[in-house]
Amino acid sequence: MKHHSFRTASLAAVLALGSFASPAVHAQEEPAEQPAAATPQRAAPRPAPKPAPKPAPKPAQPVAQAPASPAAPSVSQPAAPAATLPNGATAINETYGDWTVDCRIVERQRLCVLLQSQGNSQTGQRVFAIELRAPRDGRAEGTILFPHGMKLENGAVLRLDDKDLGQGLRFSTCLAQGCLLPISFPTVATDAMKAGKALTVAALNLSNNEPVSFNVSLSGFAAALDRIAQIDK
């Protein structure tokens, strides 16, 4: 609250009137009666000082106030232990049939995926890839990489051998390497893939509206999924 200081001006005006005598006008004239000396006037009374203004009342405090934030503990918390790989390895790269298990430590965290990729035999450029992470809470989540030029709004269709495994899967974004399609397989789907032969992933071509299909071999899939689950416990 701002406080204002006030000055009370005190004015003292004292009027003192002196006596005046009138000089003679002519020498032959009798001197005129001298007027009675003027009674000196009393000094004007000083004005009473104005009372200082009362300070404005302080605003009422709220009934309930937010509790103060607790002070940060003075003792630092111990850092979480860094993740490790079997036999103290810094990275693991193993092949199971047509699948690869890739595990590494990145910023004290263990990252493991099983993946399969396909490339252009003429250019050597990767045009398709599928990767899955270790199952968590009954689901194995991952990503499929598609080449550019697909009708993204139509999504993609997955078939396991001759049965539909997923329809209308939506693309999330496109990068320089291609367009990403998030996938999430429940345990019943991964169990079926362990016993299956091929997974077909198809999307529509943007230019001619024709389907573009990729066949994913499931040879070694069961062993690769079990291995990644063992490492990433």
Low-confidence stretches: 1-40, 56-71
How does the overall form come out from the CA principal axes?
globular
The main sheet orders its strands as: 1-2-3-4-5-9-8
Structure summary, number of beta strands: 11
SS summary, helix count: 2
Q: Roughly how many Å apart are the termini?
A: 62 Å
Strand content: 25-35%
Radius of gyration: 49 Å
Share of helical residues: under 10%
Instruction: Please give the largest β-sheet.
Output: 7 strands, antiparallel
The assembly state of the depicted protein chains is: single chain
Please provide the ordered H/E string of secondary-structure elements: EEEEEEEEEHEEH
Q: Write down the overall mean pLDDT.
A: 76
Can you characterise this structure?
The protein is mainly beta and 233 residues long. The chain is 9% helix and 33% strand. It has helices at 187-195, 221-231; strands spanning 91-96, 99-106, 109-119, 126-133, 139-146, 156-160, 163-169, 173-174, 179-186, 198-204, 211-217. The strands form two sheets. Strands 1-2-3-4-5-9-8 form a seven-stranded antiparallel β-sheet. The protein starts with 90 loop residues before the first strand and ends with a helix. Mean pLDDT is 76; it is low at 1-40 and 56-71.
